[in-house]
C-alpha cells in the first residue's frame, strides 16, 4: 500500500464489492477503481445488469470481473470462493455492501422475509469474510469493510429483521477485528444514515415521513451514495492501517441529534 500525503494509491490490489450494480455499491466500486484497484463485482445477475460499470472501470485501465452470485444461497457463495481460487484471484479488499430490507410490523414480519434478510445481510458477509479473511490472515495483509447502518445503533420502525442484521454486523466487525488485527488485517465498517437508494425509495416518496426524518438530520438532507465512498476509500487504504473494529457513522449527524 502506497500513500503520499493524502493521495491514496490502490494500484496492484483487487477489491471485491458485493451489490455493485447500483447505488452505494456501484459508487464504491468506481471509487476504488479510480484509486487504482482492480474490481470483482459480485451480485445476483450482475453480469446482465452492471449498468455500464464494467465499461467505466475498464476505461480507467483497471480489470473488471462480474461474477453472478445469489448471496442468499450458501452453495453459490461456496462456488464463488472456489471460482476465485481456481482463477488465482487474490482479494486484497473485501467490501460487504449488498443488503436487502423488508418493511413490516413485527407481528406481520414473515419467516421467509426474516430468513432472506439474515441470509443476505449477515450470513453472506460472514461467509465471505471468513473465507477471504483466512487468506488475508495467511498473507498478513488485507482490508475488510462491512456496510452497517445507523440501525446498528437504533431499533428503527417496522424493520426488525434489518435492524437485527445490522446490529449483528457491527458486532461481527468488532469480533473479527479482535482476532485478525494482530495479523495485519483491518476489519471495519461504515454505518450509513438515510441515503437516497432503492432501499429507501418508499421512505423518500412519503413526503411527511421524509420531512420528519430530515428534521432529525443536522445536515438537513438525504445522503447520496457519493457521501459514503470517501470513508470506504479511507478504510481501504494505508491511511487506516491502525484503525481496527471501527463502526463509522456516515449519517449527516443523525446519531448526534
Structure explained in plain terms:
By secondary structure, this protein is α/β, with parallel strands linked by helices. The strands form two sheets. Strands 5-4-3-6-7-8-9 form a seven-stranded parallel sheet, sandwiched between helices. The chain has a two-stranded antiparallel ribbon with strand order 1-2. It starts with a strand and ends in a 7-residue tail after the last strand. It contains eight helices and nine strands. α1 (23-34) packs across α8 and α4 runs parallel beside α5. The mean pLDDT is 94. The chain is globular, with a radius of gyration of 18 Å. The protein has a single domain, classed as NAD(P)-binding Rossmann-like Domain (Rossmann fold), CATH 3.40.50.720.
Amino acid at each position: 500500500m502506497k500513500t503520499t500525503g493524502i493521495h491514496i494509491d490502490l494500484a496492484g490490489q483487487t477489491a471485491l464489492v458485493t451489490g455493485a450494480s447500483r447505488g452505494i455499491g456501484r459508487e464504491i466500486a468506481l471509487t476504488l477503481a479510480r484509486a487504482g484497484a482492480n474490481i470483482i463485482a459480485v451480485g445476483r445477475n450482475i453480469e446482465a445488469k452492471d449498468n455500464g460499470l464494467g465499461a467505466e472501470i475498464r476505461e480507467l485501465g483497471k480489470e473488471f470481473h462480474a461474477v453472478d452470485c445469489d448471496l442468499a444461497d450458501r452453495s453459490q457463495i461456496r462456488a464463488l470462493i472456489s471460482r476465485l481460487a481456481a482463477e488465482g484471484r487474490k482479494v486484497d479488499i473485501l467490501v460487504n455492501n449488498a443488503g436487502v430490507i423488508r418493511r413490516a410490523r413485527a407481528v406481520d414480519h414473515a419467516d421467509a422475509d426474516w430468513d432472506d434478510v439474515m441470509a443476505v445481510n449477515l450470513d453472506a458477509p460472514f461467509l465471505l469474510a471468513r473465507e477471504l479473511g483466512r487468506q488475508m490472515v495467511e498473507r498478513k495483509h488485507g482490508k475488510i469493510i462491512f456496510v452497517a447502518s445507523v440501525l446498528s445503533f437504533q431499533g428503527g420502525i417496522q424493520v426488525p429483521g434489518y435492524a437485527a442484521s445490522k446490529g449483528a454486523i457491527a458486532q461481527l466487525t468488532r469480533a473479527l477485528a479482535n482476532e485478525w488485527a494482530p495479523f495485519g488485517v483491518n476489519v471495519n465498517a461504515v454505518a450509513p444514515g438515510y441515503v437516497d437508494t432503492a432501499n429507501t425509495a418508499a421512505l423518500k416518496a412519503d413526503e411527511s415521513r421524509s420531512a420528519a426524518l430530515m428534521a432529525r438530520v443536522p445536515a438537513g438532507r438525504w445522503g447520496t451514495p457519493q457521501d459514503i465512498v470517501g470513508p470506504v476509500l479511507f478504510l481501504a487504504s494505508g491511511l487506516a492501517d491502525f484503525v481496527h473494529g471501527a463502526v463509522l457513522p456516515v449519517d449527516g449527524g443523525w446519531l448526534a441529534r
